[in-house]
């Protein structure tokens, strides 16, 4: 990413909170957005050393100082999407959402190590929370869903660009919302 000051950031990494291994951006999936002179990052990372899954929620400035973001993830996500929409409305340049693509073989097939989550429709098999967190694409975002006795909490909306990856603990619900199994 390039800042208005001309400073460019070409790599990003965070330490695993469990084993302290440095986890590079290639092991993360999520989004990054340049807002004025700061980059906000909201992603899920998987440590290649210990296999632990953890959240990355921070921002950094053009001096490359990283600061934690203390807001809840759903609020950070909503603010990032709102700001991206405002930039588009004003015709200002928008740096693309950062999405780590799934690994693929030379022929384009998904490698066996790729983990795929659930694909769930809004039907009688899914129990929905009566509580909503807001709306996305004109439809309500329910706080949680339950499928076959497993509860999944709202994690994020499908990016407008349509590129995303589900982990084994996630479920795509109604083709627009991603929920994460409770406890993971």
**Average residue-wise pLDDT:** 77
Give the neighbour order of strands across the main sheet: 7-13-14-12-11-8
Determine the number of helices (DSSP H or I, runs of at least 4 residues): 1
Residue fraction in strands:
35-45%
End-to-end span in angstroms?
30 Å
Largest sheet: 6 strands, mixed
Radius of gyration: 17 Å
Helix content: under 10%
Order of helices and strands: EEEEEEHEEEEEEEE
Which structural class do the helices and strands define?
Answer: mainly beta
Low-confidence stretches: 92-115
Outline: globular
Number of strands: 14
Could you list some keywords that capture this structure?
184 residues, mainly beta, 6-stranded mixed β-sheet, 4-stranded antiparallel β-sheet, 9% helix, globular
Task: Explain this structure.
The chain is mainly beta and 184 residues long. It contains 1 helix and 14 strands. The chain has a 6-stranded mixed β-sheet, with helices on one face. It has a 4-stranded antiparallel β-sheet with strand order 3-4-5-6, with helices on one face. A hairpin with a 4-residue loop joins β5 and β6. The longest helix is centred in the middle third of the chain and has 17 residues, at 73-89. The two termini are 30 Å apart.
């Amino acid at each position: 990413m390039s800042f208005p000051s001309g400073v460019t950031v070409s790599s990003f990494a965070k330490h695993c909170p469990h084993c302290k291994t440095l986890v590079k951006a290639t092991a993360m999936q999520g989004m990054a957005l340049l807002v004025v002179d700061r980059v906000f990052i909201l992603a899920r990372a998987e440590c290649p050393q210990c296999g632990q899954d953890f959240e990355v929620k921070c921002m950094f400035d053009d001096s490359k100082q990283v600061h934690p973001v203390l807001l809840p993830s759903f609020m950070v996500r909503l603010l990032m999407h709102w700001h991206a929409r405002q930039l588009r409305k004003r015709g200002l340049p928008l740096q693309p959402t950062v999405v780590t693509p799934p690994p693929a073989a030379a022929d384009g097939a998904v490698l066996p190590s790729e983990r795929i989550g659930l694909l769930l429709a809004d039907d009688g098999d899914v129990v929905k929370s009566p509580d909503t967190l807001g709306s996305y694409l004109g439809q309500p975002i329910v706080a949680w869903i339950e499928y076959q006795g497993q509860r999944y909490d709202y994690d994020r909306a499908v990016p407008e660009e349509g590129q995303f990856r589900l982990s084994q603990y996630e479920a795509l619900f109604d083709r627009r919302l991603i929920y994460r199994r409770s406890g993971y």
